[in-house]
Amino acid sequence: MRKLGIDYGTKKIGLALTDGSGIMAFPHSVIPNTPNLLKTLVTLIEKEKVKEIVIGYSLDRNGKPNAVHTAVEGLILDLTLETGLPIHLQSEQYTTQAAIRLQGKTKMTDAAAAALILDSFITSNKK
What we know:
The chain has four helices and five strands. The protein is an alpha/beta fold. Strand 1 and strand 2 form a beta hairpin.
């Protein structure tokens, strides 16, 4: 079952996809956060036959939702209404820094962070 991982940012969105069996996560792309974001995501979901979505959630250092998390909640609502797919939240704390440590800072850093979020979800949900 193919999954989409999303690393949400106010300017850029990192995207990752799993293989067809849903067990390996790979960076896919980085797209701008524009008013067309929902349409872009729905097109990708349909094209790639995604069946589940994993979105990184952002908390401040005290464990409370921050401004980015509020925007993520809006995206979750929009994606749920548009696709009806299951959407899971996975902590995204320090994934960008981890991606930079692994590969250096590149134009695909946010996609690598999305792959780390997706991989963390897969690992924590293995049965």
